[in-house]
């Protein structure tokens, strides 16, 4: 469900701006929209705008990506506070953090993803996204649950639009749930729960250097 906006506001935006604007207004099932909402007990003032700016910077820095990695959903220790899939806020400059945690939240699997992307020379050529772009909290705000099929379906149009705008050379689902939600995509093991080696091997197999666009 999206809230109304003025035609003039829409016309002034480029396609990526419109996508991000729609994302800020989306209500995907009962998930927490970290680009629109804030929890006073957990978030700094202005946190949603900072998260959206982090995401916009990530996408605009990779306007012709070799690879788009798609996870399942925004996790509480990663995208919920950083605004970027598979990314911990602690990996960002402190002024781009959004939580009240002075140490910054850290998602273990996010650290693995970025380390392996760097090892394979893909860090600066990879867009990170989630099939459900918002956070499905579990029993507490700092927990995760599996997104419902309806929530995954509601998130799919955002992914399709992103693919149309950035036209990545390759799109890969990461993990079983993302693979089931996006059955037409290539899929690799999620790095969590001892899956780092399999994630690296799978990524190296489907995204070799020869698949990258000429960036000269």
Describe this structure in words.
With 216 residues, the protein is α/β, with parallel strands linked by helices. The protein has one domain: Uracil-DNA glycosylase-like domain (Uracil-DNA Glycosylase, subunit E), CATH 3.40.470. It is 38% helix and 10% strand. A 4-stranded parallel β-sheet has the order 2-1-3-4. α7 links the parallel β3 and β4 (186-188).
Q: Tell me the overall shape.
A: globular
What structural class do the secondary elements suggest? alpha/beta
Largest sheet: 4 strands, parallel
Q: Which value, in Å, is the CA radius of gyration?
A: 16 Å
Q: Considering DSSP H and I runs of 4 or more, what fraction of the residues is helical? A: 25-40%
Gap from first CA to last CA: 42 Å
Specify the CATH architecture.
Answer: 3-Layer(aba) Sandwich
Order of helices and strands: HHHEHHEHEHEH
Enumerate the strands of the largest sheet in spatial order, edge to edge or round the barrel.
2-1-3-4
**Total count of strands:** 4
Give the domain tally: 1
**Number of helices, counting only DSSP H or I runs of 4 residues or more:** 8
Strand content: 5-15%
What name goes with the CATH superfamily?
Uracil-DNA glycosylase-like domain
Instruction: Give the CATH topology.
Output: Uracil-DNA Glycosylase, subunit E
């Amino acid at each position: 469900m999206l809230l109304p906006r003025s035609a003039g506001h829409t016309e002034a935006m480029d396609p990526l701006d419109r996508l991000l604007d729609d994302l800020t207004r989306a209500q995907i099932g009962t998930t927490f929209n970290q680009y629109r909402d804030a929890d006073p007990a957990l978030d700094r003032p202005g946190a949603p705008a900072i998260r959206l700016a982090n995401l916009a910077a990530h996408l605009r820095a990779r306007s012709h990506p070799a690879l788009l990695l798609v996870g399942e959903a925004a996790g509480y220790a990663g995208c919920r506070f950083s605004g970027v899939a598979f990314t911990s806020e602690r990996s960002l400059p402190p002024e781009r953090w959004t939580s009240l945690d002075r140490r910054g939240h850290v998602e273990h699997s996010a650290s693995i993803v970025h380390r392996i992307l760097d090892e394979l020379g893909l860090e600066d050529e990879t867009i990170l996204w989630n099939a459900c772009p918002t956070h499905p909290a579990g029993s507490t705000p700092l927990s995760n649950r599996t997104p419902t099929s309806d929530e995954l379906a509601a998130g799919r149009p955002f992914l399709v639009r992103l693919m149309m705008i950035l036209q990545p050379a390759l799109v890969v689902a990461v993990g079983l749930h993302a693979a089931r939600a996006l059955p037409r995509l290539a899929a690799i093991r999620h790095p969590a729960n001892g899956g780092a080696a399999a994630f690296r091997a799978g990524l190296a197999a489907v995204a070799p250097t020869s698949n990258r666009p000429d960036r000269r």
